[in-house]
Design goal:
single chain; about 425 residues; alpha/beta; FAD/NAD(P)-binding domain; 3 domains; 7-stranded mixed sheet; 5-stranded parallel sheet; 23 strands; about 25% strand
């Protein structure tokens, strides 16, 4: 049984590239560190299922119990505590986070907090998007990694962003029949993006190798799915490219319209948000004292940006801000790439016309586009139509509604995830004790 209260110098929330790097750097710098993630194993979407992680010629093997033991000495316990399968559901007062696993609840007391909560896929509604076997691109990849049989299955991958190629490569390795990659971005913008990679030779080589491995898979630009069809499950998709429309039979449709930073926990902590991302300074410090943020919540930019931000945040949180500043030039290089990435895969206006009046936009509460048109704000949609009030708490429909209507969520309230009453009660006790 895990104790109800634990404490540390640095709490890292999120076990992807940014969180793993931040935790390893912090504990190697002498800080007593806790690393937690809501998945049963660390790695995030990028490194999920790996036995160890390699980046920049350094092994980040926090998945190994041996590493945690080696970070202590014979006279002191290990400085790294790992808590996979835990998620933070509330922040009752400064320096305290309420976390829960499947069966337990903990109050974690910390001196410094590093938020590395990653990003999620953006979904846009279209007729048939709620059919069985229509899912997120990263979601399908995660399910295959967890054992979903995909060999021989016909798959169409559609949306925008580099994730489509990465998912296609992985599914092809698993012997799926990847029938098409439909990229909504224009061919000219992708060409300009490719030319910009000359200042990032490692990424250029990586992109070339990826395309070479997908040479037999059709890749269409200026192309998107307009409808998914099937009686009880997905049978075919309808596609459009400029003035051309056609149908393609498939067993799975994997969609993803770039990524959305997970900022809910940062907002709950009171951190300033700017342009949909957590606002940080050059040391990854947020607007809240002793709270840092690293990786995709500060802006979508890929694994290299996440790792360098995790390193900066880990050093700064451990009191080594001067050491952290050695990596600022690397960060600026990554940030320039991130800017070009997000500009290239910006969503086109035509995608706003995909949904019909009968299309569900909020799939948790069965709210249609026609019902949302009767509202004027996100708050009105929640009050009168319960949009965003379901289990996902607006994580799926929120970005879609923002794209369609320009409405932004007005507040974040605990719990940021569905939580047990026990956890909320403990958070309430912590808040009253402050």
């Amino acid at each position: 049984m895990t104790e109800a209260h634990v404490s540390c110098d640095v709490l890292v929330v999120g076990g992807g590239p940014a969180g793993l790097t931040a935790a390893q750097v912090a504990c190697e710098s002498g800080a007593k560190t806790i690393l937690l993630d809501d998945n049963p194993a660390f790695g995030g979407q990028i490194w999920r299922g790996a036995k160890h992680f390699r980046f920049d010629n350094k092994v980040l093997d926090l998945i190994s119990d041996q590493t945690a033991a080696q970070l202590g000495t014979t006279d002191e316990p290990a400085r790294l505590r790992k808590m996979p399968g835990w998620r933070v559901v509330a922040a009752p007062r400064p320096g305290v986070a309420t976390a829960e696993s499947l069966s337990e609840t903990n109050s974690i007391h910390f001196q410094k907090l590093i938020l590395a909560t990653g990003a999620r896929e953006r979904f846009l509604p279209f007729p048939g998007w709620t059919l069985p076997n229509v899912m997120g691109a990263g979601g399908l990849q995660a399910m295959v990694k967890s054992g979903l049989p995909i060999a021989g299955k016909r798959v169409v991958i559609a949306g925008t962003g580099p994730l489509l190629l990465a998912v296609a490569e992985y599914l092809k390795q698993c012997r799926a029949d990847v029938r098409l990659i439909a990229e909504q971005a224009s061919g000219s913008s992708l060409f300009r993006f490719g030319l910009s990679l000359t200042s990032h030779p490692a990424k250029l080589f990586q992109a070339a190798m990826l395309k070479a491995r997908l040479l037999t898979v059709p890749y269409l630009t200026d192309c998107w799915v307009t409808r998914a069809e099937g009686k009880d499950t997905l049978e075919r998709v309808c596609l459009r490219q400029e003035s051309k429309s056609w149908q393609l039979e498939c067993d799975y449709l994997a969609t993803g319209f770039h990524l959305i930073p997970n900022t809910e926990l940062a907002e709950l902590m009171g951190c300033a948000i700017e342009n949909g991302c957590v606002k940080v300074d050059e040391d990854q410090q947020t607007s809240v004292p002793n709270v840092y943020c690293a990786g995709e919540p500060t802006g979508i930019g890929g694994v290299e940006k996440s790792v360098v931000e995790g390193r900066i945040a880990g050093l700064a949180a451990a009191g080594l801000a001067q050491e952290a500043r050695k990596y600022h030039a690397v960060w600026r290089h990554c940030a320039r790439f991130a800017g070009r990435l997000n500009e290239t895969f910006r969503l086109r206006e035509e995608l706003k016309a995909l949904s019909t009046d009968e299309t569900f936009v909020c799939r948790c509460e069965d709210v249609t586009l026609a019902q949302l048109r009767e509202c004027s704000t996100w708050r009105a949609a929640k009050l009168h139509r319960r949009c965003g009030m379901g289990p996902c708490q607006g994580r799926i429909c929120g970005p879609a509604v923002e794209f369609l209507f320009g409405w932004k969520p007005e507040s974040v309230r605990p719990p940021v995830f569905p939580a047990r009453v026990e956890s909320l009660t403990q958070a309430d006790v912590e808040e009253k004790s402050s």
